[in-house]
Specification:
By secondary structure, this protein is mostly helical. It is built from 35 helices and four strands. Helix content is about 70%, strand content about 0%. It is flat.
Length: about 775
C-alpha cells in the first residue's frame, strides 16, 4: 500500500497525467473541423430517428436531390465572369426553392458531401451479404498470390472463407460511426500514454536507486522480491488506469462534436471494421482494445524497468529505450503483413500498441507452413511476453550483487572532478532535472505533428503554385505575353460556354452533349481563380518602379506571417507548445536548490550567490534557446520544404497581401529575410524573458508546484484558451506578443520597437533577480 501511495499518487505523476489529458483534449479539438462535425451530428441525429425502410429511401432521395441542386449551381456560376469562389458555400435561396429542397444544415456543399458518405455506407451495408458470399472471389481478385497453387496460400484462402461463414445472413444497420472512427484513429493519445508509463517506470526505480534505498534491501531476499512485485503491480494498475482514462477522454471529446455512437451495434457496422470476423458489439470491442493496449503498455513499462536495472545512468536508459523503439518501429514498418516474415510484424510492441489493426480484418502468421490467426497468436504471445518480463525483472532484482571493495594502491586512477560551475549547472538542468527527456518528448511531438498534419494544397493553391513557379523572377515580355494568352484562353472558354447554354436553351443540342461539353469547359476553367490571383499580383507590381517588378511565390511567406487561417493556427499552436515546454523544462531546475536547501550554502556570501545566480540564468537561457529551436525548426522545415524559399531576399513590396507594410513608407523596402529575422529574434528574446521570469518565481515561491501553477496561469492559460478557438482572449492577454505577426501587421514599426522593448525587460528582470536573491538569501 505504501508503494501504491508513494508512486501512484505522486504529485508529479498526477500533474503530468492531468496536463497530458488536457493537452490531448486540446489537440483533438484543434484537429476537428467544427463546421463539418456539427453538420454530421445534426444530419445523423435527424436520419437515425427514422425507421429503417424510411431512412434508406430518404437518404438515397435526399442525396440525389442535393447533387442535382449542386450541379445546377455550378452550371450557373461557372458562366459568371470574375465570380467570387470564396463564397461558394452560401448558395442562392432560389436554388432551394426551385428544387423544393429542405436542408438539414445551412450549407449545401457540406450536406451534399455527408449525404453522399451516408449513401455509400448504406449501399455497402446492403451489399454486405453479397460480400460474404463472394469472399473467396474477392480475395482472388484483390491478391494475385491467391491465384497460385501454393499449398500455404490455399490454406489461407480456405481459412479466410471459413472465418466469414457465420456472417452469411448478417444484415447491418446504419449508425453514427464517425465519432468512434475518429477516436479509434487518434494516435496522439497513445503517444501520451507511452510517455506517462515511461515516466512512472522511471520514477519507480531511479528515485530509490539514486537515494541509495535499494542498497538497504539487497541483503534481504524477501524484501527485494516483495518490493519488485509491488512495483510491477503499481505499473500494472497504472497501465490499465491511464489506458482507460485516455480512451474515455478521446471518445468523450469526439462524441461532443460528432454525436454519440451506439455501443450495441456489431462492429461490422463501422466502415473500417466491415471486414472483421469478430462477432462482437462495439462496446465489447472498446473494452477488448483497452485490455490489449493495457497489456502492451504494461509490457513497455516492464522493459523500461528492466533496462533501469542494467544501466547506471538515466541517459543510458533513454538511449537504450530509443534504440529499442527505433528497431521495433523499423521492423513494424518494413515487415510484410503476410509470409514467413510476418511474425516480425505481429510480435512487435508497436503492433500491440496500435491494436486496432488486429481487429479490422483477418491476418495469418506462417508458423511452420501452417496459417495461424494473428489474433489467436497474439492473444498467446502478448500475455507470455508480460509474464516473461515479470519473471525476468523479479529474478534479476532478486539476485544479490555485493558492492565490490575499492582496491588501494598506485594502480588506481582517481576520476577527475570538474570544478566548472557552468558545467555543473548544465548537468543539473539536462540530466538531474530531466531536461533531456523533456526536450526529447517535445521534439518527438513536433516531428509527429509535422508529419501527421501535412500541408494540404487546395485546388486553387495548386494551380496558383504552378503559375507562380513559372512566372517567378523579373517581369519580362515573354511573361506578359503568357499572361495575356491565358486571359484570352479563359475569355474564349467563357464565350464557348455561353454559346452552348444558348444552344441548349434553343433545343439545338441534347442534354447529354450539353453536359459533356460544359463539363469539359468547366474543367479547363477550374484554373481561372488561381489565374485571377496572378493578375492581381501583376496589377500590384505594375504600380512599382520598373526595376522593382518581381514575381514572388508568396503563399509560404503569407503563412509564416500569419496572413492565412493556417498561419494563425500555426502561430497559436507553436506558441502554446513552446511556452509549455519552457515551463516544464526550467521549473524543476529553478527550484531544485531551494528544495534541497543548497541555496543556504551558495547564498552565504554576496559574490557566491551572484555568481551562482548568473550561472543559473545563463543555463536557463541556454535551455530555453534549445527549446525554442526544438519547437520552430521542424515547423520551418515543413513550411519551406512545401512552399520553397525563392524570393527570400526580395523586398516586402513584392508581396501584395502585406498591405500594412506597403502603406508604411520605408518598411515596404525591407527585405523579406530581415522581417522574418526580426520576427524570430523577437520571439527568442521573449523566450529569454520567460526563462528569467521562471527563475524569479522560483526565488519567490521556492516550490515547484507553485512555480508551475503560477507560470501556467500567467503565460500559458490564455494561449490554451486561444488554442481552443476563443480568439477574443488574444485582445486581453500577452498572446499577440508571443505570436508577433498580428502586432507587426497592424503597426509595422513595432517590429523594431518590440524586440528592443523586450531586451529592456530582460535587462530589468536580470537586475531585479540579482536584487531579489540578495533580499531573500538564506530563507
Amino acid at each position: 500500500m505504501i508503494e501504491f501511495r508513494k508512486n501512484f499518487w505522486r504529485k508529479s505523476f498526477i500533474t503530468l497525467a492531468l496536463v497530458l489529458l488536457f493537452f490531448n483534449s486540446v489537440l483533438i479539438v484543434r484537429s476537428i473541423d467544427v463546421h463539418q462535425a456539427k453538420s454530421w451530428k445534426k444530419i445523423c441525429s435527424h436520419v437515425l430517428e427514422m425507421e429503417d425502410e424510411q431512412r434508406s429511401v430518404y437518404i438515397k432521395q435526399h442525396a440525389e436531390q442535393l447533387n442535382k441542386v449542386q450541379e445546377n449551381y455550378f452550371a450557373s456560376v461557372i458562366s459568371i465572369p470574375d465570380h467570387d469562389y470564396s463564397n461558394d458555400g452560401q448558395i442562392a435561396e432560389q436554388n432551394y426553392d426551385q428544387a423544393q429542397l429542405e436542408l438539414i444544415t445551412d450549407d449545401l456543399f457540406t450536406e451534399t458531401g455527408q449525404f453522399n458518405v451516408l449513401n455509400e455506407q448504406l449501399n455497402s451495408n446492403e451489399k454486405y451479404s453479397d460480400f460474404i458470399a463472394n469472399t473467396q472471389l474477392d480475395f482472388a481478385d484483390t491478391f494475385a498470390v491467391f491465384q497460385t497453387d501454393d499449398p500455404y496460400l490455399k490454406k489461407v484462402e480456405q481459412k479466410t472463407a471459413t472465418a466469414y461463414l457465420p456472417f452469411q445472413n448478417r444484415e447491418l444497420e446504419l449508425t453514427n460511426w464517425r465519432s468512434f472512427e475518429q477516436a479509434d484513429n487518434w494516435r496522439i493519445g497513445e503517444l501520451f500514454i507511452c510517455l506517462l508509463i515511461i515516466f512512472q517506470a522511471y520514477n519507480l526505480f531511479y528515485n530509490e536507486k539514486n537515494s541509495g534505498f535499494l542498497f538497504l534491501l539487497y541483503p534481504l531476499p524477501k524484501g527485494r522480491s516483495y518490493l519488485m512485485r509491488t512495483k510491477m503491480s503499481v505499473l500494472a494498475l497504472t497501465s490499465l488506469t491511464i489506458c482507460f482514462v485516455f480512451a474515455l477522454n478521446s471518445y468523450f471529446v469526439f462524441e461532443m462534436y460528432y454525436g454519440t455512437f451506439d455501443l450495441s451495434v456489431p462492429i461490422q457496422a463501422i466502415p473500417s471494421y466491415q471486414r472483421s470476423v469478430l462477432d462482437i458489439t462495439l462496446g465489447d470491442l472498446i473494452l477488448i482494445q483497452i485490455m490489449v493496449r493495457s497489456l502492451a503498455v504494461f509490457l513497455l513499462a516492464q522493459i523500461v524497468l528492466f533496462i533501469s536495472q542494467l544501466v547506471r545512468r538515466i541517459s543510458g536508459l533513454f538511449i537504450s529505450l530509443a534504440i529499442l523503439l527505433i528497431f521495433k518501429f523499423t521492423l513494424y514498418t518494413y515487415s510484410l503483413s503476410f509470409g514467413i516474415f510476418s511474425i516480425l510484424r505481429y510480435t512487435n510492441l508497436i503492433f500491440f500498441l496500435n491494436v486496432r489493426e488486429l481487429f479490422q480484418t483477418e491476418y495469418f502468421i506462417n508458423v511452420f507452413g501452417n496459417p495461424v490467426s494473428a489474433r489467436l497468436f497474439i492473444s498467446v504471445v502478448l500475455p507470455l511476453g508480460v509474464v516473461f518480463m515479470f519473471i525476468l525483472n523479479q529474478t534479476w532484482f532478486d539476485k544479490f550483487i555485493p558492492v565490490k571493495p575499492v582496491k588501494s594502491g598506485t594502480g588506481i586512477r582517481s576520476a577527475k572532478i570538474s570544478t566548472s560551475l557552468i558545467k555543473h549547472e548544465i548537468y543539473k538542468l539536462f540530466i538531474s532535472s530531466r531536461g533531456v527527456i523533456i526536450l526529447l518528448v517535445f521534439t518527438v511531438l513536433q516531428i509527429y505533428l509535422s508529419i501527421n498534419s501535412p500541408i494540404d494544397f487546395l485546388t486553387k493553391e495548386q494551380f496558383y503554385r504552378q503559375y507562380m513557379k513559372k512566372l517567378e523572377g523579373e517581369i519580362t515580355d515573354d511573361k506578359l505575353q503568357f499572361i495575356a494568352d491565358e486571359r484570352l484562353k479563359f475569355d474564349e472558354l467563357r464565350n464557348e460556354l455561353k454559346l452552348f447554354n444558348e444552344l441548349y436553351e434553343q433545343g439545338n443540342i441534347s442534354s447529354t452533349e450539353f453536359n459533356f461539353k460544359t463539363g469539359e469547359i468547366s474543367s479547363q476553367l477550374s484554373t481561372e481563380p488561381a489565374f485571377i490571383q496572378v493578375e492581381n499580383n501583376l496589377f500590384h507590381l505594375q504600380q512599382l518602379e520598373p526595376e522593382n517588378r518581381i514575381f514572388v511565390y508568396d503563399s509560404g511567406f503569407n503563412r509564416l506571417a500569419g496572413l492565412s487561417e493556417q498561419g494563425e493556427s500555426d502561430d497559436i499552436l507553436n506558441s502554446t507548445i513552446l511556452v509549455f515546454c519552457i515551463i516544464m523544462l526550467l521549473s524543476e531546475y529553478a527550484t531544485k536548490d531551494y528544495q534541497i536547501k543548497l541555496n543556504q550554502i551558495t547564498d552565504a556570501y554576496k559574490y557566491g550567490r551572484e555568481r551562482h545566480l548568473k550561472t543559473r540564468l545563463q543555463t536557463g537561457l541556454l535551455g530555453s534557446s534549445i527549446a525554442y529551436m526544438v519547437i520552430y525548426v521542424p515547423h520551418l522545415i515543413k513550411i519551406t520544404s512545401a512552399f520553397g524559399i525563392q524570393g527570400l531576399f526580395c523586398n516586402i513590396e513584392h508581396l501584395p497581401r502585406w498591405q500594412q507594410f506597403l502603406s508604411a513608407g520605408y518598411f515596404n523596402k525591407m527585405p523579406i529575410i530581415i522581417y522574418f529575422s526580426l520576427l524570430y529574434l523577437g520571439r527568442l528574446f521573449l523566450v529569454w524573458f520567460l526563462a528569467i521570469a521562471i527563475q524569479i518565481l522560483a526565488i519567490l515561491q521556492r516550490k515547484i508546484q507553485r512555480v508551475i501553477g503560477t507560470a501556467l496561469f500567467v503565460f500559458n492559460i490564455s494561449l490554451f484558451i486561444s488554442l481552443l478557438g476563443f480568439r477574443i482572449i488574444d485582445k486581453y492577454s500577452l498572446n499577440n506578443i508571443f505570436y508577433g505577426n498580428p502586432l507587426y501587421q497592424k503597426a509595422p514599426f513595432l517590429i523594431l520597437v518590440i524586440p528592443l522593448w523586450i531586451l529592456v525587460l530582460i535587462s530589468a528582470s536580470f537586475y531585479y533577480c540579482l536584487k531579489l536573491v540578495d533580499t531573500t538569501s538564506n530563507k
